[in-house]
C-alpha cells in the first residue's frame, strides 16, 4: 500500500478527520488532488521586477530584507521581493513556508500567496501556503495581523484580525478560511530549531517532519512493525541529518527529491 500523509501540525486539537479534509487529507495510491491554478507569476504586479529567493532542500534559509525585516525561508520555499521594496513597496510573494519578523514602519508589510494575504505594520508570524497544496495556515506570534483570502470568494471575503495564540486555517478547494487557536510555545520551539520527537510511530514522525521542514512525505511498504520513537532530539539539524538517524532506528530507506521525501519500509 502506498500512503502519503499531507502536511498538518500535530498540535491542533480539532478532530483528525476534519483537519485532514481541511489541509488535503491522507491520499491513497491512485488518488490525486487538483493543484491550484494560481502561481506566483500571476500574483506579481505588472511592470515590477522581483528578486527571487529559494530555500534549500531540508534546510532553512535566512533572509534580511532592505528594511531589516527578517525572513526564515523553509525547505524549497520561494519568496519574491520587488526591487522597489525599499521605496514603500513592502509587498512580497510567498510560495511555501516562512516565518517573518517585520520591522515596524508607517508602510504596511504584505505577504501574498495564491490563497491568503497577510497585512501588518510590524509583527512576527508564520505563513505556510504552497501552490501545490490546497491547505494554508497563518500563525501569529507577536503583535496583530490582518488576514484575508487573496482570491475572490463567492461566499466570504471578510478579513480576520489575529492576536498572539491565534491562527488561520484555509483551504481554497472548499473555499474555507477559519480563525482558530494554537499553542505559540510550539512556534517558539520551531524558531529555536530544536526538534524533539517523543512517542511517535512512523505516521506521526512523517507529519512532524512535514511540519518542521515544509516537505511532503510519502510512505511505502509496511510500517506497522516499525518501532516507536520514544524520544529523539535534534538541534539545528538538516532533514538529511534527521532522516539518517531515524532510518537506523525504524529500519527504513529514504530518498529526498526536491521537496518530497519517499520513505520505504
From TrEMBL:
Q: Which residues form the Protein FecR C-terminal domain?
A: 205-263
GO molecular function per UniProt: sigma factor antagonist activity
The cross-references to InterPro entries, in alphabetical order and at most eight, read: FecR (IPR006860), FecR_C (IPR032508), Ferrdict_sens_TM (IPR012373)
Query: What are the residue boundaries of the FecR protein domain, all occurrences included?
Result: 53-146
Name the Pfam families on file: FecR (PF04773), FecR_C (PF16344)
Lineage: superkingdom: Bacteria
Q: What name is this protein filed under?
A: FecR family protein
Amino acid at each position: 500500500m502506498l500512503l502519503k500523509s499531507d502536511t498538518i501540525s500535530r498540535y491542533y486539537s480539532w478532530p483528525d478527520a476534519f483537519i485532514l479534509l481541511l489541509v488535503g487529507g491522507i491520499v491513497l495510491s491512485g488518488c490525486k488532488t487538483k493543484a491550484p491554478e494560481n502561481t506566483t507569476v500571476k500574483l506579481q504586479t505588472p511592470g515590477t521586477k522581483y528578486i527571487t529567493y529559494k530555500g534549500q532542500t531540508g534546510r532553512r534559509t535566512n533572509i534580511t530584507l532592505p528594511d531589516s525585516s527578517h525572513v526564515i525561508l523553509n525547505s524549497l520555499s520561494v519568496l519574491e521581493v520587488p526591487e522597489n521594496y525599499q521605496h514603500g513597496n513592502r509587498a512580497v510573494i510567498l510560495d511555501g513556508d516562512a516565518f517573518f519578523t517585520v520591522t515596524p514602519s508607517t508602510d504596511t508589510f504584505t505577504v501574498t500567496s495564491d490563497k491568503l494575504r497577510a497585512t501588518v505594520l510590524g509583527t512576527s508570524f508564520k505563513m505556510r501556503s504552497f501552490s501545490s497544496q490546497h491547505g494554508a495556515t497563518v500563525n501569529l506570534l507577536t503583535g496583530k495581523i490582518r488576514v484575508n483570502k487573496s482570491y475572490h470568494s463567492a461566499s466570504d471575503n471578510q478579513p480576520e484580525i489575529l492576536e498572539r495564540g491565534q491562527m488561520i486555517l484555509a483551504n481554497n478547494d472548499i473555499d474555507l478560511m477559519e480563525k482558530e487557536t494554537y499553542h505559540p510555545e510550539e512556534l517558539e520551539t520551531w524558531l529555536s530549531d530544536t526538534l524533539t520527537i517523543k512517542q511517535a510511530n512512523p505516521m506521526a514522525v512523517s507529519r512532524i517532519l512535514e511540519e518542521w521542514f515544509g516537505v511532503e512525505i510519502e510512505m511505502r511498504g509496511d510500517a506497522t512493525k516499525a518501532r516507536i520513537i520514544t524520544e529523539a532530539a535534534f538541534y539545528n539539524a538538516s532533514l538529511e541529518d534527521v532522516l539518517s538517524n531515524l532510518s537506523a532506528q525504524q529500519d527504513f530507506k529514504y530518498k529526498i527529491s526536491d521537496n518530497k521525501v519517499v520513505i520505504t519500509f
